[in-house]
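WARN no homologs supplied; continuing
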Amino acid sequence: MTRFFITGTDTGVGKTWFACWLVRQWRAQGRDAIGLKPITAGGREDAELLCAASGDVLTLDAINPIHLREPAAPLVAAREENRAIDFAALNASVLKIAARHSHAAVEGVGGWRVPLGPRYEVRNWARDLGLPVVVVARAGLGTLNHTLLTVESIRAAGVICAGVVLNPGAENADTSTARRTNGAVLQDLLGLPVFEIDRSAETAGEVPLWLGGK
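OK structure emitted
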């Protein structure tokens, strides 16, 4: 069985795009693969995209059991609704659903240190789920600092970091030195595999072995 927790160096770095791509690629290989987005804050578009990528084998509520209306950190959004998330129950449900499938991508919310509840952050959540973490980061200038800090925090939390995925953005237009070299620099500094997807084609590239490819 292949399971990953997908986090990011920030909000909007492409976690959902990558998780959907990964699930679709797994399914194209004949894997029984799903994507989960257990918590959303604001719209449910990310969960809907994962539902479609998973072949609609799960309901939207199964993929996204916790939906908060306010587009804010879940700690804040839940307080706005006078709600408290039961993470013990949520985590048990997530792991139960994931266990029914050979491959699963569980997407977090926001970045690695986003607060989800009182004294409970994304890093606590990933640790409690016990899944290896994949970090999604921007490909261009500025990503070295954010990625190094994120991976350092993952390791300090006692969580396995499986690798880093660099997201060049929808246009693939950045030809800067930083964009060209960031992958190799991060791989050298972190001692982790680094993968960059060519977003000019949905099916471009194969899933590396470390991400559960053939």
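The mean pLDDT is 93.
OK
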